[in-house]
Structure formats: C-alpha cells, structure tokens
Design brief:
By secondary structure, the protein is of the alpha/beta class. The protein folds into two domains: about 10-175, Spore Coat Polysaccharide Biosynthesis Protein SpsA, Chain A; about 175-250, no CATH class. The chain is built from seven helices and eleven strands. The strands form two sheets. Strands 1, 2, 3, 4, 5, 6, 7, 8 and 11 form a nine-stranded mixed sheet that branches. A two-stranded antiparallel sheet has the order 9-10.
Length: about 250
Amino acid sequence: MKELMIENISAVIISKNASKTIKITLDSLKNFKEVILFDSGSTDETLDIAKIYNNVLLCRGEFLGFGPTKNRAITLAKNDWIFSIDADESLSKELFIHLSEIDLQPKLIGEIQRDNYFIGKEMRVAGWGRDKIIRLFNRTEFYFSDHQVHEKVEIDASARKVILNGHLKHLAINDLSQTLEKANLYSELFAKKNDSLYPFWVILLKTQYAFIRTFFLQRGFLAGWRGFVLAFSNSIGVFYKYLKIYARHKQKNK
C-alpha cells in the first residue's frame, strides 16, 4: 500500500539551536514532500539532524524577529499553501490526515489546537492552557504580522476558518535554562522595537504584578513548582524588557 504523502502543502519551520526538539518535529513531518527549515545560525546539532531527512530543504539566513523571519521563510517554499510549525512542535496523526484530505479553497485558513508542555507536563494554568492558532494558509492571501515576538497570521473578514482535527504538541520548555534564555531573547526584541519608558518604581510594580497575575490570578499555584517557575520567569521577563529601555535612555542622557 502506497504511503500517504502531502505534496500540495509545504511545511515551514524557523530554527536556531533546536537540537533537543527538532527530531521530534521532523519525524512528524516525514510524509510532507517539502519541508523548509530556515535556520538563523544554529551552533548545536540542529543542522546535522536536519540533513538526515530527504524531504527537508535547509536554508540559512539572519533572524529578523519572529514575524519577519517567518515571512522570509515562507517565500522559499514551492507551494503557496503553507503549514507553519515551530521547531519545538509536532503534529498528531489526526492532524496530518486532515491536512492530507482538506479541500484547499481560496481564503481558507486552518486553525489548530496547541497543547503546551513545561518540562514534561502539559500546562493548563499560569496563562498557558490549550490555545488555538492559525497555521495553515495561502501565502498569496495571508502572511505573518511583522511583530518581533508573539507573531500571528494576519487575516481579514474574507478569511474562511476551518478547525483542523488533531493537535500540535508544543514542547515549549524542556529545561530550566530555557526560561532564562527566552526571557533574555524576548526582552531584547521588545526593547529594540519599543520606547515605553517608565520610572524605575513603575518597572518594579509591573514586575511584581506579572508574578501575581501568573501565580495567583491565572492559577499557576495549581501546577506546583512549575507554576512558581513560570510566574518567576514571567516577572523576570517583564523586568528586563522595561529595564533595558530604561537603561538605554539613562545612558543617552548621562
């Protein structure tokens, strides 16, 4: 029996130092005829792992922020229909089957449930939960926002949304060091594109509120130590994204 293949949709990934998760991602995409992996300077084994897969086209380029980089990556695909997936995500069998059978009509977009994992456990509190994200679209009609972080596919009233069967498994954090790395990266991207200058005491209040919101209001305490770590790392991220702007202005005006 001939193995089911998806030929009319290109899977597109951006990556940097994703060796801990990229094999799981690429295994879940093995029956896509074309997978674009746009790498922005990995120094770990990400590229060596990707080269094992015959359906992966490896491209290299500069990281311009999440939205702009994803828009650059989708231009490299042969197909106009794009399935965007992150280097720490994998698709379920049900999702693959639905993608292989879907009738690709103009203005169609595919929305998917994503299950988020923190160090081996699915999280449904602390602001994580199961989210719905658009990942299937035609690049001639829709594209990603230009946001440096928290990018999403920009749609308009003409879009025809289809809820896709199955789900994405998102291995968002696999070890504690990633919480610090992401806090630094996201705060750096935010500070580069924003000029939200606050007094130092306001930054401290925002930092405290970020912890309270995540741990108490979003019920992070129900996740035990994982919830505390998420609340703490969120507060650190808020602290640094505003402090970097504050420090920049102080250095200019000294």
